[in-house]
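so im writing up the methods section and need the Tc1-like transposase DDE domain-containing protein record in one place, dumping it here so i stop losing it
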Amino acid sequence: MQLDSSKRGFQPHRFRYWLTEEEDPQREEKIVEGCQVYAQAAERAKRGERTISMDELTGVQALERKHPDLPMQPGHVLRREFEYIRHGTLSWFIKFDVVRGQVIEPSWGPRRTEEDALAHLQRLIASDPTATKWHIVLDNLNIHQSESLVRWIADLEGIEQDMLGVKDKRGIHHSMASRAAFLHDPTHRVVFYYTPKHASWMNQVEIWLSILVRKLLKRGHFISLDDLRDQMLAFMAYYNRTMAKPIKWTYTAY
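--- predicted struct ---
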């Protein structure tokens, strides 16, 4: 008697994603430091310091369902039309205030470039001239360790541009690692903390983004890019008004 292939453990119609871990020699150090950033945020806020968790949400689609949903009924879940009309995408820069538990100063547009990231961060710092220091948690995306970002921070710190070296050749601009080290300097007014590779769960804004996806985007119906923008901004305002609270970060890395 022959057994069905699925009963022998072969299921060629199925597959599972796999992520090959990239070595990060500073992984434990970064996790410990990230936990300390969150743990000390409230105390630092008393001295006028801000702690921000930042990430991007790219390619958010404005999808309009071709026909209305069929509402839930006893014994039947909500049924959604399979066909849709695509109205384009928006890329978002989202910032989460760790102490206040609120989403602040979002930016959106058709792209997510080095120039966009720099402008987004510049608007953040300009939004609160009274802040004595900024602590910003973000991932290792190359636009978070860019030449233009280094030049901006150097200007803020009064560092001469010719002291920065040449991109991909020497000095602070030599590599992404050297630029990240400069941007992480704790003596700066704006300090960047980078999560370890493949550890985006260390970034608190990821928790908020999952709320956004579950409560709005997953079941969203958007008739245009403007409608998508307006609904997302309305959700952020609603969240800040009725749901916002600091995330209770219990992970200690030990």
